[in-house]
């Protein structure tokens, strides 16, 4: 290291008449106000997004633009006064930086009108907008020609012209830049350990966006800004770090608030502002090496850019959701990474201040700084490849073709299972033939482009890799109807953990079983569901649970896990075990304990995608052995009779209103009875809107409590297009059923009500095998035998009546005994 005189040694600050303490007090109050407005505003906006998502409501596109405008007004007004009124140059520089940062936040907030599912488009917009903002700010903050750089030239050096551009020195980066790179890499360590990258394009766009955000920070915190805090008689470098660090941290706060989709900006609020102290210390380093001119802005660009890259690239905003807070999922790990980043930023600030911003501090050599950066780079790579989640984990595209299979004119089939099997075989043949014929050219082209096509036939569709460019190309092809985003979850640093129950085992039929009369069907009619198979598409099934193990159909085509490829029924989430237990569980929890079951995993960590939902529905139409080809190895004669579906596919997972419509139509045509949950987004009207619940060939189930009142959370109709939904109700409050690990638990939801209706259908078809394969007649009998239930309303306003009680209660509470009697 070499000792260099401090840049401010012997310098005299620009003269300003004394103005008293009030400008400083005003600046302190404005800074506190900026923090008090920005942080709660960002957290509150995200919570509003999450509440709307939880209630199944459409996101409000103008929410974030409006929040950004409000922040500009609330923060920008006092900042503007600071920029104009005080005599103190430092206070005016503070006001200008805070005002510009607030304006940047307002502009960046406009980009959040882009739906989170289109993350690449958002990142591209952020990169372009931030680049333009950086250019504008550089022109705005360009110093007037003829002014000298405060605190003044060091004796023996030529005077610096403050109006000139920053001095760009050719050759290798200086120590301040290398130290900034090292600090930025240190801030990336928690993200490389706990997060995971998206796709290639997504990662590249995140890097470009982060670099542009760094450029904005460099324009905000340039030489003019820092020079206002590097003054004093005698020189006090600690003031630069303390005061300049605080002011720059507040300036970086709005910049962090605007960088990232809703949710992804929250960890940046923790990690980005504290870097202001490290930047102040790095300015001291750069000033010592450039005592006569403008210091480089590269340290700010690198440090802020790398700090912004972490949350932008290593976290999926769609997974930073309250829906996943119940376990150690992405929101938990994002919070941990943000907290760790805060700790790293504070440690860097303290270390850099002690090493470089004290009197007599030595400027590190370029070699020393380069070694620090190299060590951090190697450490980052080791963390990512070791305890991290290396590789790319981007979304895919779901390409729906225009032509769907024609299932009209199916030959009449004999009643019962033989007729059902014949219809299922014919439906399967037509679906596969249509997909093979219409997909051939497109699949060849996608394979040539190495986009990894995965074909489907139940909906004539293909899942492929690709971003916005591939999507635009596909959408323009004549055989393509539309292109959706098919979600892919990013891996976790540790398993989320298995959900287990804590309730004691039942000692007899549960209250919900007794309420619908299923126990009377067993005891008085001698019907338990024997001879009928129910298929469950959910988070999985604990196949070893004592209430479920005996009912598994077995064979090589009764279990499918498209997420993890497990070969035996397993469930870590618990939801699927609980729902299936209410359908076929033994020991008093299931409606049809004599029925058999098959299973498929379409949810992982409570999230799905159009492709994975279709994976399971396709498997249910024509089961195939492990490792088999659905197109050639399907066995429609092994299809389950009834499907229970306690899930829905909202827009945030990539579905649109009609994407699964061909699938449920084909299942119905094949004689497979489909039951689906209405959803838990009540008491709002028209809240039955996530596929497959709104479809007419699906029996949609709402929930009631122990007093036969419709549960407040139970979704209501009318369905899109005005159809009356739900169809029937079942108990869905305080339902006890099986949980992974052999235990039991009590849950609420239409998810709990749905499998009970599937169990009632199993009792009906077991009592009268001639009904097997006749979904229309079965739906009619269920409606005709249902008993009245009490509707509930959000309020008594006319608009909350949902068009009539039928859109709240459907036909009423399902009556297992009456339905089986009618079936017989």
UniProtKB/TrEMBL annotation:
Pfam families with a match to the protein in the record: Peptidase_S8
Q: Is Membrane found in the keyword set?
A: yes
Going by the UniProt record, its keywords in alphabetical order are: Hydrolase, Membrane, Protease, Serine protease, Transmembrane, Transmembrane helix
Instruction: Spell out the catalytic residues.
Output: 538 (charge relay system), 575 (charge relay system), 751 (charge relay system)
What residues form the membrane-spanning segments?
Answer: 62-85, 97-115, 121-137, 178-198, 204-226, 238-258, 264-286, 298-315, 330-356, 368-386
The record's family statement is: Belongs to the peptidase S8 family.
Protein's name according to its UniProt entry: S8 family serine peptidase
**Organism, per UniProt?**
Micromonospora globbae
């Amino acid at each position: 290291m070499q000792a260099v005189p401090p840049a401010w040694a012997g310098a005299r600050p620009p003269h300003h008449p004394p103005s008293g303490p009030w400008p400083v007090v005003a600046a302190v109050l404005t800074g506190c106000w900026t923090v008090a407005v920005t942080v709660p505003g960002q957290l509150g906006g995200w919570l509003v997004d999450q509440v709307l998502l939880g209630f199944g409501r459409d996101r409000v596109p103008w929410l974030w633009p409006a929040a950004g405008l409000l922040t500009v007004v609330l923060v920008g007004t006092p900042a503007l006064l600071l920029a104009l009124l005080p005599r103190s140059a430092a206070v005016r520089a503070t006001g200008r930086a805070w005002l510009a940062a607030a304006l940047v936040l307002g502009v960046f907030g406009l980009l959040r009108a882009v739906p989170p599912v289109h993350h690449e488009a958002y990142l591209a917009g952020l990169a372009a907008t931030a680049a333009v903002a950086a250019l504008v700010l550089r022109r705005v903050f360009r110093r007037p020609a003829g002014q000298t750089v405060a605190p003044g030239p060091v004796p023996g050096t030529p005077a610096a012209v403050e109006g000139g551009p920053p001095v760009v020195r050719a050759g290798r980066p200086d120590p301040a830049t290398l130290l900034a790179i090292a600090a930025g890499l240190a801030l990336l360590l928690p993200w490389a350990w706990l997060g995971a990258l998206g796709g290639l394009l997504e990662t590249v766009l995140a890097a470009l966006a982060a670099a542009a955000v760094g450029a904005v920070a460099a324009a905000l915190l340039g030489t003019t800004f820092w020079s206002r805090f590097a003054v004093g008689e005698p020189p006090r470098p600690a003031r630069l770090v303390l005061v300049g660090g605080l002011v720059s941290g507040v300036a970086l706060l709005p910049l962090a608030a605007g960088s990232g989709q809703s949710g992804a900006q929250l960890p940046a609020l923790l990690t980005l502002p504290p870097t202001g102290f490290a930047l102040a210390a790095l300015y001291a380093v750069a000033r010592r090496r450039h005592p006569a001119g403008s210091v480089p802005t590269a340290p700010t660009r690198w440090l802020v850019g790398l700090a912004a890259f972490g949350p932008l690239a290593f976290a999926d905003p769609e997974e930073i959701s309250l829906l996943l807070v119940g376990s150690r999922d992405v929101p938990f790990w994002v919070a941990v990474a943000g907290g760790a980043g805060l700790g790293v930023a504070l440690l860097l600030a303290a270390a850099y201040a002690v090493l470089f911003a004290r009197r007599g501090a030595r400027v590190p050599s370029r070699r020393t700084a380069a070694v620090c950066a190299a060590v951090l780079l190697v450490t980052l790579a080791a963390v990512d490849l070791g305890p991290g989640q290396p590789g790319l984990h981007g979304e895919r595209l779901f390409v729906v073709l225009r032509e769907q299979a024609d299932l009209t004119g199916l030959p009449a089939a004999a009643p019962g299972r033989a007729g059902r099997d014949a219809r299922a075989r014919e439906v399967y043949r037509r679906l596969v033939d249509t997909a093979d014929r219409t997909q051939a050219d497109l699949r060849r082209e996608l394979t040539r482009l190495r986009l990894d096509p995965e074909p489907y036939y139940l909906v004539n569709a293909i899942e492929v890799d690709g971003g916005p460019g591939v999507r635009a190309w596909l959408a323009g092809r004549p055989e393509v109807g539309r292109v959706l985003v098919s979600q892919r979850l990013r891996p976790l640093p540790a398993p989320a953990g298995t959900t287990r129950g804590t309730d004691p085992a039942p000692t007899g039929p549960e209250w919900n079983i007794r309420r619908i009369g299923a126990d009377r069907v067993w005891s008085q009619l001698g019907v338990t569901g024997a001879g009928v198979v129910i298929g469950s598409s959910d988070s999985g099934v604990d196949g070893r649970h004592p209430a479920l193990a005996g009912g598994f159909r077995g064979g090589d085509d009764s279990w499918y896990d498209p997420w993890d490829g497990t070969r035996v029924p397993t469930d870590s989430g618990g939801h699927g075990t609980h729902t299936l237990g209410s359908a076929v569980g033994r020991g008093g929890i299931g409606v049809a304990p004599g029925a058999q079951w098959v299973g498929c995993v379409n949810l992982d960590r409570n999230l799905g995608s159009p492709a994975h939902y279709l994976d399971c529905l396709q498997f249910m139409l024509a089961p195939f052995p492990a490792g088999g080809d659905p197109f050639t190895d399907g066995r429609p004669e092994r299809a389950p009779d009834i499907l229970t579906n306690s899930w829905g596919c909202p827009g945030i997972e990539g579905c649109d209103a009609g994407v699964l419509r061909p699938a449920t139509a084909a299942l119905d045509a094949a004689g497979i009875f489909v039951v689906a949950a209405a959803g838990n987004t009540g008491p709002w009207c028209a809240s039955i809107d996530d596929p497959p619940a709104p479809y007419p060939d699906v029996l949609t189930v709402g929930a009631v409590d122990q007093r036969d009142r419709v549960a407040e959370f139970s979704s209501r109709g009318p369905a899109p297009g005005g159809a009356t939904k739900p169809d029937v109700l079942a108990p869905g409050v305080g339902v006890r059923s099986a949980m992974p690990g052999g235990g039991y638990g009590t849950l609420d939801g239409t998810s709990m009500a749905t499998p009970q209706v599937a169990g009632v259908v199993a009792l009906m078809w077991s009592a009268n095998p001639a009904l097997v394969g006749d979904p229309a007649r079965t739906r009619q009998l269920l409606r005709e035998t249902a008993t009245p239930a009490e509707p509930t309303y959000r309020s008594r306003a006319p608009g909350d009546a949902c068009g009539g009680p039928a859109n709240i209660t459907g036909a009423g509470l399902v009556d297992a005994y009456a339905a089986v009697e009618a079936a017989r």
